[in-house]
Amino acid sequence: MSPTLLQDLSDVSYPTVGHFLEDGFVSPAIQSLLANVKIAGPAVTVRIADHDAIAMNHALLALRPGDVLVVDMGGDHQHAPVGAVTAAAALAQGAAGVVVDGVATDVLELRETGLPVFARGTSCLTTKRLFGTGSAVNVPVHCGGVEVNPGDLVLGDDNGLIILSPEAAGNVLGKALASDAAEPAILARITSGEPLESILAL
Ligand SMILES: O=C([O-])CC(=O)C(=O)O
Ligand SMILES: [Mg+2]
């Protein structure tokens, strides 16, 4: 991955990426629990089986600064694997954010930590320390309909989430930056009262 790719990606308006691609868009059921967030970082993945909290502990230890933790609950939308303690631990590791294909808990404390957490909603039911064997860290996972490999790039803001391979992200970057650069002039023409017939291509 080019060292500037992440920085350049975070300069793009993420909905602009949606003008150019059809794949990589996480289900809009998964949204930020905090307002005014924008994250870009490589995925550390964890597949959690049978609401076992131990897997999350292993995943937290695998995080490096700038990583985004992507949690696949295997369809369990009842047990929250992320809350005040896990968010504080992820933040202490320097994580850029956490994405749960499932629910989160301790939402008021989560908002206070400032760590961007994306989830399908919230729950009071949490995972438990079960020491099972079905969970795994840094394996391919599914998140909101998108297959996620460790190291894929997670882009998230208040609109939602896009998860792309570094190659796919690099390919769309130039087009998205050019589109963003062109948009202010179009908006200025619209707000200046220029006839829409001369602006919109029909
Ligand atoms: O333990 C859990 O499953 C989540 C939680 O409450 C926390 O991280 O504080
Ligand atoms: Mg808690």
UniProtKB/TrEMBL annotation:
Catalytic activity: oxaloacetate + H(+) = pyruvate + CO2; 4-hydroxy-4-methyl-2-oxoglutarate = 2 pyruvate
Coiled coil: none
Cofactor dependence: Mg(2+); a divalent metal cation
A GO molecular-function descriptor: methyltransferase activity
Keywords associated with the record: Magnesium, Metal-binding, Methyltransferase, Transferase
Record-stated family: Belongs to the class II aldolase/RraA-like family.
Cited function: Catalyzes the aldol cleavage of 4-hydroxy-4-methyl-2-oxoglutarate (HMG) into 2 molecules of pyruvate. Also contains a secondary oxaloacetate (OAA) decarboxylase activity due to the common pyruvate enolate transition state formed following C-C bond cleavage in the retro-aldol and decarboxylation reactions.
Record-given protein name: Putative 4-hydroxy-4-methyl-2-oxoglutarate aldolase
Organism: Paenarthrobacter aurescens (strain TC1)
